[in-house]
Write a sequence for this structure.
């Protein structure tokens, strides 16, 4: 069977790299900093390329399961078979902050223990709708869209989601 892919971009590592560069630039005098960068330009470019490589990931779906891996390197971040996944759901993650609430849209794949085994953010992702059509052939979808406030531990699979996904035979699929 054919493999379907969805490429996603996560700019968090790039922002951290740039922020750390700015912090170093503010703590070190300008002439010393720029001399260091020009002398070690290859190290700076190499570290930026590594950060960019780890910022692009791919979700691959085929008949055996779903795989999340780094785009260019054959390094698998997570691999789940269809037997391990119970169902998937569309989730609005609402985070409370100092300046108000922030909502992030994601797809959660839940395992048999009612924990999140794979999380895919909808933002900055290409061909996700095609991938979800293929996933619908193999897995059940939770029919309601769920809103969860501050799911810091839940989205990593550290706590159970049973109180949010009360699934019985009537509400599944």
């Amino acid at each position: 069977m054919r493999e379907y892919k969805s490429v996603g971009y996560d700019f968090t590592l790039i922002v951290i790299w740039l922020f750390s560069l700015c912090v170093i630039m503010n703590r070190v005098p300008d002439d010393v900093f720029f001399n260091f960068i020009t002398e070690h330009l290859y190290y700076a470019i190499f570290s930026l390329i590594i950060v960019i490589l780890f910022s692009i990931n791919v979700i691959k779906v085929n008949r055996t399961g779903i795989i999340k891996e780094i785009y260019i390197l054959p390094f698998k971040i997570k691999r789940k078979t269809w037997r391990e996944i119970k169902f998937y759901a569309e989730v609005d993650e609402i985070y409370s902050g100092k300046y108000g609430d922030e909502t992030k849209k994601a797809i959660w794949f839940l395992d048999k223990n009612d924990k999140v085994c794979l999380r895919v953010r909808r933002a900055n992702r290409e061909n996700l709708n095609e991938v979800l059509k293929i996933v619908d052939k193999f897995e059940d979808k939770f029919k309601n869209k769920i809103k969860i406030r501050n799911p810091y531990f839940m989205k990593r699979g550290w706590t159970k989601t049973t109180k949010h996904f009360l699934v019985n035979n009537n509400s599944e699929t």
About this structure: Residues 167-173 have pLDDT under 50 and may be disordered. The chain is about 30% helix and 35% strand. Residues 12-27 form the longest helix (16 residues).
